[in-house]
Amino acid sequence: xxxxxxxxxxxxxxxxxxxxxxxxxxxxxxxxxxxxxxxxxxxxxxxxxxxxxxxxxxxxxxxxxxxxxxxxxxxxxxxxxxxxxxxxxxxxxxxxxxxxxxxxxxxxxxxxxxxxxxxxxxxxxxxxxxxxxxxxxxxxxxxxxxxxxxxxxxxxxxxxxxxxxxxxxxxxxxxxxxxxxxxxxxxxxxxxxxx
Length: 195
Known about the structure:
By secondary structure, the chain is an alpha/beta fold. The protein has helices at 3-15, 23-36, 50-55, 72-85, 98-101, 121-131, 159-174, and strands at residues 40-44, 64-69, 91-95, 109-114, 132-141, 178-183, 189-194.
């Protein structure tokens, strides 16, 4: 893996305000991924491919990442970035809307990383639960959404996202098959381990 290229990609994304995984969030996920040594990871929301490239370091030897992105420009950039870093044999990008793509996937995954449309988190959870391996882990980024989720925030613009993120937290917290922690790293990370 070309670490120099990865650093450049990270820098460019930050300069262009493209949302990429925060360092402290990645550091927390790293601990779990090292422990489970995933064969297959599913990522919902590729953006420029940064997090997927970071995750390749923790894959089992023949491990693989499937990632979904709906914005054409981002897909194009992600493909170029993945090639530059030299991990194109480890990452497959599905281009299109995760809501349409997820139900067509038949794989089983050791880890799922949810980092796409906030209003769709409950749907992403349902699909993730269908595909996760026993002992797998589902990560959901930005779960506290600038603090709105835990406050009495009710502005119209973000109302659906906030309501659905609250629903996600409720579902993962009350599901008897999951052991969930809501961590205040980055913009909030939900870590749900399958019991």
